[in-house]
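Replying to the earlier thread about multi-chain prediction with a worked example.

Input:
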Amino acid sequence: MSPARRFGLADILHVLDALPVGVMMLSPQGRVLHMNRALGVLTGFDPGHARGLPCRHVLRGQPCVAGCLMGCGAFGLSGRETWPEGGGPAASGALLPGKGKSDGADGFTLETDILTRKKRKVPVRLTNFPVFDGTGKELFRLDVLEDLTEVKRLEQRLHQSRGHGRFIGKSVAMERVTNLIASVAPTVAPVLISGETGTGKDILAETLHHASQRSREPFVRLSISPLPEELLVADLFGQSSPGLPDKAGSLQQAAGGTLYISEIADIPKEIQSRLIGVLDEGAILPVGGTRPVAVNLRLITATSHEPGTLLEQGMITPELFHRLNVVHLQLPPLRERREDIDFLLQHFLDVYAARFQKDLKGFSAEARALLAAYDYPGNVRELKNIVEYSAMVCGEPLIGIESLPGHLGLLKGGDAGHPRLPRTGHERKKKLSDPAKSKSRERK
Amino acid sequence: MPLNAVETRYALVTLCNDEVSPRFDLTAEVLISPLLPDTPPGKLPDGHRHLVLAHISGEELCDLITRSGVSVVICGGIEEDYFHYLRWKRIEVISEVMGPVADTLSRLAGGELKSGDCLFEPAREEES
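Result:
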């Protein structure tokens, strides 16, 4: 006698209920015969109430609606299926999972998502396979569901740590920075990011935080606004007043995580010297407080100036500069990595085409030539804005020169087939300031 | 205004073949129907129309619902975001409904349909 024969239906269901993964027994027509406890918790369905329902109304996975891979053809049938005649699987002989001999599919595994009764989408791995009796007759099918929420979360973190999140680029210069992220992110060393406006300093700082072990802790961004110095000190270091609750500053808010200061050159000298104390001692003294408060944070700073200029022009004290400049990441301007332009144009086009629900295929050759020749003084941010505008106004599948922003249209000149933009800022200003001159030239 | 001149209410049902679609965001077809209490059970009310969606998208479906002026949406599973958005737009959402669309509309017209209702016939094992 085989071991399966010794078990009755109740024993099998008891074993299924003890499993930590979701399991559903289905009739060959795709109706729920039994759902174990783990699946009840995952889907939010009461296993008793789910019995007899079409599985597509219980699992509600993508393939259930798009076209069931079981090929059960249950749509259109009425009523609920119950156990096949003969009183359940145990009465029908040995249970043999595996290759199908019946009309249905052989079984499959796929990653999909299901919608729970709590109105939440859950990513799952779904494995479906038929179970046969000794004569090759299909008794039932088993759906095994593994919750992939945690796996997907980890995948996303790994994806970000490789620099493929919001921080993108294919040029050698950007690859160098991307490769450094993986080495720098896990450490606690202060990082100084330099680069022109629009090169992605903020995104790089966020990427470093998300790739670090502090990613679950806060990421606090501090932009130094033109406030009185006393208020800035309170904003940064917090305030402690007798009889009133303590007010946490940015340094305390970032405890355990990362504090990102977006322009280090804007910090007044007084605060710079207090920051040195924080970096050296790992403690702060709130305004009005008498006892230092320990803070454990990582400091990332950024500047749009050349780091050498910061020192030369006295915008930052050498003591602070050398403490912050442990790791220096320099983001090259877009005009120095022109090989990224095409890639970024396509990337942002995909983003905005999806956002505006337009079927945009790309840019016309003329528009692409114009965009490839442009200087992008506002760097990636400007390129992104140009694509957003073009995608917004364009009504054709291909974005033509007429859908580009006005300032680019003004600058287009030269031969009709090869529009040329002024390459330097000086040349550009000259051309913009004297449109009459360029018109008279055209008339000739 | 005379009492019999009350404006007809319309319902939108997400469809998958002849059933309420199990997933709102994966719905490719909808039925927009007036709520007429005298419709025979199992029949669709006069004046109903089917719409096949150009794209399968929860956002586009929400947009269609708000533009079409329906007062009730009947669907199966629906994500929280869409549910709250429609409620915020003052549209009644009867979700988690399972069953054939004609029976669902009959029950709605009779004022008996509620979220979580299952309109499939009872299991044979329960009958016996």
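Confidence is low (pLDDT under 50) at residues 124-128 of chain B.

Feel free to reuse this layout for your own posts.
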